[in-house]
Write a structure and sequence with these properties.
The chain is mainly alpha-helical and about 70 residues long. The chain is built from 3 helices and 2 strands. The longest helix has 23 residues.
Length: about 70
Amino acid sequence: DVLSSDPEIVSGAVVFKGTRVPVSGLFEYLRAGDSLDEFLLDFPTVERPKAEAAISLAGADIETQLRKLAA
């Protein structure tokens, strides 16, 4: 259990489970060229394994989408 979404927490945004930190924030940091370590320093409630799992999930989703496009 890495991610969660609840209409009562951050308007239903997907967040790291047990926090109010949107997962999109992680990808905004990475897109801006910031490191995972910088993100984790700025959001200490997010545990490294959860952030790494979110990155892996996103990578798997991209792979699935690319396979569909290539088919």
